[in-house]
Amino acid sequence: LERRLGPYAAAGQLQQAPAPRGGGIIKQEWWKHWTEPHFPTCEFVLASLDTAYTEKTENDASALSIWGTFRDLNGNPKVILMYAWAERLGFPDLVKKVIDTCTIDKRNTGIPRDKRFKVDRLVIESKASGISVAQELHRVIGFGGNFGIELFNPTKMGDKVARTYAVQHLFSEGLIYVPWPTKDGQELPQGYAWVREVLDEVSIFPRSAHDDRHDSMTQGLRWLRDCGFALRTEEHSFSVEEEKMFRGRAVPLYPV
What we know:
7-stranded mixed β-sheet
């Protein structure tokens, strides 16, 4: 019966679950759990913003995800999802929340300290509302602000499904971590509901009612991959060997 219905229909009708066992394109079991109480020391922190066109309830929310890149004990690149939110916000409130989430200062923003980050770059989908948000952020924080702002066009990599498959291997090969400060797969403590929301939305895609967090994720990971921050182990090893090969031997300017 499951074969006849298909994995999504079977999950919904037989298992009373919205996604196939383990997830859809990106399976929940592929996310690596970061169980330490503090984040790893990150070399680069990226914020990825997917903006909604309006704030009406029937439309998707705007979503922001924060990604940190670090290296494991063997020097291999890894990526950790540090935080994510999705809300239906008017234009001024959206700009304010993005700034508050992507900066650390002494202002009383109403956002807990552990939900604010020192971001190196913010990427925004290059569509009508995204361009407007980028322009307003430049106006508010200036071009020499605390983080760089870049418009990014993910549609050049195809539709949403194609873009998901383009980053699928990062998960299946164990590059992507998510905070999970418990041992032996126990339930997440208070304050980490956003982790479960992200995992559930991503695992259901492309059958989810809303995909704002998912779109923010694929955009951010694609940018990190294009810029060389999210390399597979084999790719990283090759780049290291290639650098050694072309580094050459230092030659003194004058004979000694």
